[in-house]
Each structure stands twice: as structure tokens, then as C-alpha cells.
Design goal:
236 residues, 7 strands, alpha+beta, 7 helices, 6-stranded mixed β-barrel
């Protein structure tokens, strides 16, 4: 990854690939610009973009352990529900664009074993294996993950207690990243019952609420501790 980050500043093919896999606000037709003869490693604007990408991804790697994988091996996609009721429990439907920069063109439908997870991912059950199937009636849903509406518990809730209100999920079909074991039982993310007062809220109630919030606000501490343990572990 580090080698490719450096080489993208020197070689046009790597620069094109990097820019093509980067989502820019408003969208940039990178492939079309390349065909027009623009040299991305020398043109000032695009070279500044490459330098910004280099700095951003290097920072993500150092601070957040974010490792970029090729777009041929995985994607970060929004989750949606199967309104047709076709998918069975344990199945998903994923139809994605071959190139991130050309959404809706050269579509590929996944088939077979895939792994899906969501940030934050701390519990072993937050990373789950599914069977990707081809469902023609869902072909209009592109560049997203379609989860089944069937089952005793939503698959999205099994992963960090997430839902389908815009959450994005990481999916990979890369053989070397597929676990060889069965799914670990997911953690119980059931929220505690809310306290309903039969009287007006008082200052003491607000103080109690803030105190409980501070006491339970541990996600950042857990995340940093998780990275520390991973750094000390020989296998990461």
C-alpha cells in the first residue's frame, strides 16, 4: 500500500487508478479526462489532488489503521432492505459497478461467499459471512448491499447494532480475507429500557442524565485500547 501511494506520484497508470477509485464531491469523469490526454502526474490541479490523497491515506493508516484494498476485492456500500421478500436469512444481494468512478456501468453481480462488517467492529460477531446470490428482480439495486427481510433478527443489528438509516457496510469477496470458521454469535445490542418519569423533569434528573452519559461514553477509549493491543500482538 505504501509503495503504491508513492508510485502514484510518478507513474500515470497508478495515478489514474487512484483518482478513479476516489469519490470526489460532484464527481469527476477521470476516465474521460485521461482519454483526452491529460497527464495526471504533471498537471498542477490533479497533482495537488494526488498529494492530498497521499497525505490523507497515510494519516488514516497511521492514526486509524485504515488499509486500502483494491476495488476488485471489496467495497464500502450502503445497506438496504429486500422489499420483495426474496432473499432468505443468511443471503445478500450485491450488484456493483466495476469501476467506482463509472457508477452504473459494467455491472457485476456477486455470487458465493462474502464477508460483511461495519465500523466500529470490536466483537468477533461484528464480522459476518453471507452467501451472495443473484436475484434478477433486484437487479435495479446497484452499488448497495441488499439484506433479507426474513429471519429472527436483522443481519444489520448483528453487526454493531446497526440499522438501515444510511449506514455503510464493508463487503469483501477476497479469498484471503474470508474466515474459515462459522459465524460467531453476535453480541446483544438491545438498548436498556428508557426511564419514564411520572413528574416534570427536574435539575437533579438532568444532572443524573449527564453523569450517566459521561460514565458510559467509553467508545473512544475502547477503540484506542483495541489499536494498542493490535499493535502489540505479533499477528496484529
Amino acid at each position: 500500500m505504501l509503495r503504491n501511494l508513492a508510485l502514484m506520484l510518478l507513474f500515470e497508470t497508478l495515478a489514474l487508478d487512484t483518482l478513479r477509485r476516489t469519490n470526489f464531491p460532484g464527481g469527476l469523469k477521470i476516465t474521460a479526462l485521461s482519454r483526452s490526454g491529460i497527464n495526471f502526474t504533471r498537471e498542477p490541479f490533479f497533482r495537488s489532488l494526488l498529494l492530498a490523497i497521499y497525505k490523507s491515506r497515510l494519516g488514516d493508516l497511521l492514526r486509524r489503521a485504515r488499509i486500502v484494498i483494491p476495488e476488485t476485492h471489496g467495497r464500502l456500500l450502503m445497506g438496504v432492505i429486500d422489499e420483495t421478500g426474496t432473499l432468505e436469512y443468511g443471503q445478500v444481494f450485491v450488484r456493483y459497478s466495476k469501476l467506482v468512478s463509472d457508477s452504473g456501468k459494467e455491472l457485476i453481480t456477486l455470487k458465493g461467499k462474502v464477508v460483511i462488517s461495519k465500523n466500529p467492529c470490536f466483537h468477533p460477531g461484528d464480522m459476518r459471512t453471507f452467501e451472495a446470490v443473484d436475484v434478477p428482480v433486484l437487479h435495479h439495486l446497484v452499488d448497495c448491499i441488499v439484506f433479507p427481510a426474513k429471519g429472527h433478527r436483522p443481519h444489520t443489528d448483528e453487526m454493531s447494532g446497526s440499522d438501515l438509516d444510511g449506514d455503510k457496510y464493508f463487503v469483501t469477496w477476497y479469498d484471503k480475507l474470508l474466515p474459515q470458521r462459522e459465524n460467531v454469535d453476535p453480541m446483544d445490542f438491545t438498548s436498556p429500557e428508557k426511564i419514564v418519569l411520572d413528574r416534570p423533569v427536574e435539575v437533579s434528573d438532568m444532572i443524573q442524565f449527564v453523569s450517566e452519559y459521561i460514565k458510559n461514553d467509553q467508545l473512544g477509549i475502547i477503540a484506542n485500547a483495541h489499536l494498542v493491543h493490535a499493535d502489540h500482538d505479533k499477528v496484529g
